[in-house]
């Protein structure tokens, strides 16, 4: 029997390890746990496509929708609508690809796992780092938006940082439930709240006399055009805001993993893309 050198042995061991990891990602860990579950076992796979749709919808429209007035002001009405619909279709297609990827690799529960399938251990760490960074910035965006809103409502009762700490703590407590099925109920509240705020803003803007606006008559009434040109930086900023608005894909693997039938997530995706694009 031919003896192998130490580097060859290490390489063979690494290959076997990667194969074991890849094989593990082809098995749904939640299904395995459910198959041997006792009465005290947590059932993670108990969510239907409507609740999953509420989760991804709250993830998508909660912050992104707030930037669209400035997006249309920078791009113009026609360019704004065209770009939004184009990104919506692209988002729908890429989301469908992620669902298919999930079905082919049931053990993938987040983008770090997907990176492991694609690029092995390096893929796991690279995708995992990007997932962590994006999640941190999303959480920070929520804390910032909440602090600004509460600061305005309370007429600066406390400093903005204080409100940010409060929002962060409340967000942490609401994230304590161990299953997404429980969190989905909060998502319904989130969707109703943000859509209600949007309708109030739309109605108030429509019925408010122009001379009641703080900047009137120095800037005059708001004017809309089919196309706008505010420079390269503003255009890129508007486009990235639209991309951010459809950035809920980061959670698709995690949400689908806790569905009774992950393949049904395509219905959740259709629901959120339709509602998010209309509003």
What would you note in describing this structure?
There is one protein chain. The chain is about 70% helix and about 0% strand. The chain is built from 11 helices and no strands. It has a domain at about 45-120 and about 180-210 and about 230-279. It has helices at about 5-25, 30-35, 50-65, 70-75, 75-105, 110-155, 160-175, 180-205, 230-245, 250-255, 265-279. By secondary structure, it is mostly helical.
Key phrases:
mainly alpha, AA_transpt_TM, L-amino acid transmembrane transporter activity, transmembrane
Low-confidence spans:
12-17
Counting helices, strands and paired strands, the structural category is mainly alpha
Element order, helices and strands?
HHHHHHHHHHH
* Count of distinct strands: 0
Shape: globular
Average pLDDT taken over every residue: 79
For the report, how would you describe the main beta sheet? none
Given the structure, what is the number of helices?
A: 11
Distance between the termini: 69 Å
Q: Beta-strand percentage?
A: under 5%
Nearest-angstrom radius of gyration? Answer: 23 Å
Helix content: over 70%
Transmembrane segments: 49-72, 78-99, 111-133, 153-176, 183-207, 238-256
GO molecular function: L-amino acid transmembrane transporter activity
Protein name: Amino acid transporter transmembrane domain-containing protein
Domain Amino acid transporter transmembrane: 46-279
């Amino acid at each position: 029997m031919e003896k192998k050198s130490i580097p060859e042995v290490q390489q063979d061991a690494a290959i076997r390890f990667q194969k074991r990891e890849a094989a593990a990602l082809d098995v749904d860990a939640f299904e395995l746990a459910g198959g041997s579950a006792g009465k005290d076992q947590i059932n993670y796979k108990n969510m239907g496509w409507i609740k999953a749709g509420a989760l991804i919808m709250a993830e998508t429209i909660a912050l992104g929708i707030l930037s669209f007035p400035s997006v249309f002001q920078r791009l113009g009405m026609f360019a704004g609508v065209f770009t939004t619909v184009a990104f919506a279709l692209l988002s729908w297609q890429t989301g469908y690809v992620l669902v298919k990827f999930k079905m082919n690799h049931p053990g993938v529960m987040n983008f770090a796992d997907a990176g492991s399938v694609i690029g092995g251990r390096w893929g796991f760490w690279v995708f995992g780092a990007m997932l962590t960074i994006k999640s941190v910035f999303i959480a920070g965006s929520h804390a910032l938006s909440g602090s600004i809103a509460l600061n305005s409502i309370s007429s600066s009762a406390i400093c903005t940082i204080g409100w940010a700490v409060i929002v962060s703590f409340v967000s942490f407590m609401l994230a304590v439930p161990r299953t997404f099925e429980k969190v989905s109920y909060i998502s319904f509240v989130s969707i109703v709240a943000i859509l209600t705020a949007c309708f109030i803003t739309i109605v108030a803007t429509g019925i408010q006399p122009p001379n009641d606006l703080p900047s009137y008559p120095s800037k005059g009434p708001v004017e809309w055009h089919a196309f706008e040109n505010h420079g390269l930086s503003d255009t890129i900023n508007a486009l990235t805001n639209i991309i951010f608005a459809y950035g809920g894909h980061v959670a698709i693997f995690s949400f689908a993993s806790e569905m009774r039938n992950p393949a049904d997530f395509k219905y959740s995706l259709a629901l959120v893309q339709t509602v998010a694009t209309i509003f």
